[in-house]
Amino acid sequence: MPALWKLLGKSEAEASRIYAVFRQDTKNDAHIHVGDIHATDPEMALMLAKEQFARRDPCVNLWVVSQSRIDATAYDDAVSFEPATDKSYRFGGSYREQQRVMRTKPRDQR
After folding, report:
1. Each residue of 20-55: pLDDT tens digit?
2. Residues near 74 by beta carbon (within 8 Å), at least 6 away in sequence
3. How is 17-52 classified by DSSP, letter by letter?
4. Residue 96 pLDDT > 60, yes or no?
């Protein structure tokens, strides 16, 4: 697996100063990526992340992760994420589209 900084075309030194910030709004929520912070070390990154991403909206947890520590799949591997069989019936998109169409029809045509 290549490092994320390689996929983004950055140097390792530059990636070590960029931290991805993840926040968790409540204990039952998942951590969500909210942005990046440029900092000299992890402690400074956490302080800046608190100021930037937790000042206005309260949260219960923040993660800061150096981009140089994140591994990612290569874009060429996207084919491996395609499902082996068609299971489009599991997705609600067709149901939502059907509901949208039904709402636009006059009541006498239903």
Report:
1. 999 999 999 999 999 999 898 899 999 999 999 998
2. 1, 2, 7
3. TEEEEEEESSTTSPPEEEEEEE-SSHHHHHHHHHHH
4. yes
66 to 20, 25, 32, 90: CA distances (angstroms): 6, 21, 16, 36
In this structure, are residues 23 and 35 in contact, taking their beta carbons and an 8 Å threshold? no
Options 3.40.1710.10, 3.10.20.520, 3.50.50.60, 3.20.20.10; CATH for 4-84 is 3.10.20.520
Whole-angstrom distance, CA of residue 104 vs CA of residue 15: 51
User: What is d(CA 36, CA 31) in angstroms, rounded to the nearest whole number?
Assistant: 14
Q: Does pLDDT of 80 surpass 70?
A: yes
User: DSSP labels for 45-80?
Assistant: HHHHHHHHHSSSS--SEEEEEEGGG-B---GGGGGG
Question: SS3 of 3, please?
Answer: strand
